[in-house]
Amino acid sequence: MEIAIGLCLGLAAVGAGIGNGLVVGRTIEGIARQPEAKGMLQTQMFIGLGLVEALPVISVAIGLILFATRP
């Protein structure tokens, strides 16, 4: 069970890191193409980052629940 908890937390962190990198990278590309859209792109980027970061938070909650209820 401890291995499953560790995998749950580790994979969520890796996935969030990759997702954050993709979101920020695409935002920078968009700003480079259209500098006048910087404000709108940054707003959308922060919303996207919040959604991506929800995965590790949920994973930590599930991991703690699994850890607390293990036999």
Walk me through what this model shows.
The protein is mainly α and about 70 residues long. The chain has a single domain, classed as Up-down Bundle (F1FO ATP Synthase). Helices cover about 90% and strands about 0% of the residues. The protein has helices spanning about 1-35, 40-70. It starts with a helix and ends with a helix. GO terms for molecular function: lipid binding; proton-transporting ATP synthase activity, rotational mechanism.
Distance linking N and C termini: 9 Å
Q: Please describe the biggest sheet, giving its number of strands, its sense, and whether it closes into a barrel.
A: none
How large, in whole angstroms, is the Cα Rg? 16 Å
User: How many alpha or pi helices?
Assistant: 2
Alpha-beta content class: mainly alpha
Strand content: under 5%
Q: Architecture in CATH?
A: Up-down Bundle
**Average pLDDT across residues?**
91
Helix content: over 70%
CATH topology: F1FO ATP Synthase
The succession of helices and strands, N to C, reads HH
At the fourth level of CATH, the homologous superfamily is F1F0 ATP synthase subunit C
- Total number of domains: 1
- Choose one word for the global shape: elongated
Transmembrane segments: 45-68
Site (Reversibly protonated during proton transport): 53
Family: Belongs to the ATPase C chain family.
Main location: membrane
What topology emerges from the helices and strands here?
Layout: H1 2-33, H2 38-68
Helix pairs in contact: 1-2
